[in-house]
Specification:
The protein is mainly α. Helix content is 65%, strand content 4%. The chain is built from 14 helices and 4 strands. The strands form 2 sheets. A two-stranded antiparallel sheet has the order 1-2. The protein has a two-stranded antiparallel sheet with strand order 3-4. A hairpin with a 2-residue loop joins strand 3 and strand 4.
Length: 297
């Protein structure tokens, strides 16, 4: 079935039920998160963001005739399971760079913090990937053209991996100066690894001059970043930033320049996700669809 036919069919469909459930969760837990006192964000964060994930999935299904949840509920749940340890990796790096801190952390025991944080970290990948799939269906993305080709030649992958090692070393050695490399080092390290292991990588598209998936991921993470920072502003517990040299023009708690970090962050999530599913044998998973007309489910 062509994308045009799928779009025509979905326009005749009612808005998916899980999207209405998502709107209800957002309305309820946004009000709770900003309206109550105490450590309400500890338990309100996950259902609020689950609502967001369900809404963007439903919008993608309505626009494109396909979505993450509609294609495979099992793989959709798997994204939540991969997301939590993926973000814990960034927390481990932040233990060195001290780029962000959590106000209210001392209100919890170590066990309470690990359990609640793990649950809340689980929404990162589904939120970003779901938003990226929605954006990938937009007309301006579908019409994008590029003559820039980036192929995963041995020289290119070796160069990228070397840059990733250098970025990681600089960041860990001089975190006050090179903390922005948190959002670059992993993608330069992991994309070559995925190429070498035969996993799905972004070069599947860039080798053909198709940068639409990259732009969709960029905009997906940036959109999520806006909502993360907005909903965080009146939350408790909440995060704040230490960003030497760029602590000006804040939009919520995040300095304006800091939003640029969401762009490569999306590519890091893509690389991490496909590294993990590759380790479980799903090396060329087409579950995440960021290009062209949707395939048959």
């Amino acid at each position: 079935m062509t994308e045009q036919a799928l779009t025509a069919r979905t326009k005749r469909m009612a808005f998916p039920l899980h999207g209405w459930i998502g709107f209800a969760l957002i309305g309820l837990f946004w009000s709770i998160n900003w309206g109550l006192d105490g450590n309400r964000t500890t338990w309100a964060f996950f259902p609020l963001w689950l609502g967001y994930c369900l809404v963007v999935d439903a919008l993608a299904l309505r626009l494109r005739g396909t979505s993450l949840l509609s294609r495979s509920a099992r793989k959709y749940v798997g994204m939540f399971l991969i997301s939590a340890p993926a973000w814990w990796l960034f927390e481990a790096i932040n233990a060195r760079v001290q780029n962000w801190h959590y106000l209210g952390r001392d209100d919890f025991s170590n066990l309470e913090y690990v359990i609640t944080a793990t649950i809340n970290f689980s929404i990162v990948i589904p939120a970003v990937f779901g938003t990226a799939e929605l954006i990938a269906g937009a007309g301006f993305i579908r019409r994008m053209k590029s003559s820039l080709v980036l192929r995963p030649t041995p020289a290119v992958t070796a160069l990228f991996f070397g840059l990733g090692l250098a970025f990681l070393g600089l960041m860990l050695r001089w975190p006050d100066r090179f903390y922005p490399l948190v959002w670059l080092s992993l993608v330069f390290l992991l994309e070559p690894v995925n190429v070498w292991l035969g996993n799905r990588s972004l070069t599947r598209w860039t080798a053909e001059g198709d940068w639409r998936p990259v732009v969709s991921l960029f905009l997906g993470a940036l959109t999520c970043g806006f909502f993360w920072e907005m909903w965080n502003y009146y939350s408790h517990p909440k995060w704040i930033y230490t960003t030497p040299g760029v602590e000006f023009l804040k939009v919520f708690e995040m300095p304006l320049l800091g939003y640029g970090g969401y762009l490569p962050f999306a590519l890091e999530l893509f690389a991490l996700y496909h590294l993990v599913v590759g380790l479980f044998g799903d090396k060329l998973s087409s579950y995440l669809r960021l290009e062209g007309p949707p395939e048959r489910a």
